[in-house]
Amino acid sequence: MTIRNRLTWLFVGVVAFILLGVLTTAFLLQSDYSRRDFRQRLRERAVVAAYIYLEKDELRSSAFQAFQKQFQRTLPEEIIQLYDATGEVRFVREDARLEVPPEVLARIQEGHEEYFEDGPREAVGIFYRDNQGQYVVVAGAENQYGNARLRYLATILVSVFVLSLLLIYAAGRLFAGRALAPIAALNGQMESISAHDLHRRVAENLSGREQDELSRLAHTFNRLLDRLESSFDGQRAFVRNASHELRTPLAASIGEAQLALAREREPAAYRAALHALLTDLTQLNALLNHLLELAQAETPLPEHNTRIRVDELLAEACAAIAPAQRPRLRLHTGHLPAEPEQLELTGNRTLLNSALINLLENALKYSEPRPVAVELEYEPGGVRLRIRDEGIGIAAADLPQVFQPFFRAGNARPVTGHGVGLPLARKIIEQHGGRLELTSQLGQGTTVLVHLPTA
């Protein structure tokens, strides 16, 4: 069922429930009024009957005639009965008789006014005391006119209810159609956007209002398209650059193998060819490892991570640097907490270690043979790690792109690398709730600032 139909039927159901409650209440109030009015008339008939048949000898002629005239205006199917103190019927008007339950008759004789039903008739019994004795007067009749009015009223209310439902349904359809028209237009615009035209955006004011739910939905969808477009562009660039980076060592390896097999050579030539092939395959293996690490960095961290001391993690990363480059590292510690537990964080030790190693290797590689300063300092709620080199630096135009995989600045191309280490380190650090900031000046060096939250 479409949203329009659901809204229409929901609107009809709610209004029908309210309308049914109002009409039912009106009918019940009218029914209660009709019953109370008929019972009052029955009581008056019982009193008049008592006066006529028990006070006849004590009334003046004119008064008796007035009561008799009133009594002659009988109710439909009216029956009047008089009981004496012993419970015997003294008088019955009309041939039929009312069946008065004994317990009802007993309560009337005690002085209570009782109402009861006898088939289609409603009846009332009153206690009447006369100078001749004590009597019970019972009057019963059918409320034909009242029931007819109620049936007529019920017919009118049912007709009003049915016609109202039809009008409400038509109004609900019209209202739902107008309310959902912007959604239909938004849906049409969304369907027209494919992976080949992610640059397109949907209109954000289809409803004519800037801050309603539809405008916010369109705005959110456009932001989603922005992220998708950025992701698609990054994926295309990644595939293009990865293909180029993978093809270079593969093509070199194939060329070396073909050249070695072209003719018979001396053992030294074969050794030189195998050495060149090993170099290319080593670069290819390093690149594939970086790609696997990038893929691993994209996956969410497990719920149960290990607790890691940041100072120990930094020591492990420094120890993993090649022995020939290790002396160039200048490690400094600033303000550290008195409790070592304040330097602990939760996360994936392998990933964090890989991120720090990549940052250290980058600094050493692009500043050779100058030293690299590494500073660790505690700050409330986390630690700050600063890695500062005195190398070639990065041009201002290249800084916004250095975190794209496989991007390499123009002055960095003579140095062996793949452009994966810095983006990988940033993803790992952000995955652990931290942030990585980079500042650089061309020819003066680069500073990497890492903030990591402690447990």
From TrEMBL:
Any one GO molecular-function label of the UniProt entry: kinase activity
Q: Which residues form the HAMP domain?
A: 177-233
Among Gene3D superfamilies, the record links this protein to: 1.10.287.130, 6.10.340.10, Histidine kinase-like ATPase, C-terminal domain
Q: Report the subcellular localization.
A: Membrane
Start and end of every Histidine kinase domain?
241-455
Q: Enzyme group, top EC level?
A: transferase
Give the catalysed reaction(s), semicolon-separated: ATP + protein L-histidine = ADP + protein N-phospho-L-histidine
Enzyme Commission number: 2.7.13.3
Which residues are listed as membrane-spanning? Answer: 6-29, 152-172
User: Which of UniProt's keywords are assigned here?
Assistant: Kinase, Membrane, Phosphoprotein, Transferase, Transmembrane, Transmembrane helix, Two-component regulatory system
UniProt-listed CDD domains: HAMP (cd06225), HATPase (cd00075), HisKA (cd00082)
Chief subcellular location equals membrane
Q: What's one Pfam family here?
A: HATPase_c
Name the record gives this protein: histidine kinase
What's the source species for this entry?
Answer: Hymenobacter artigasi
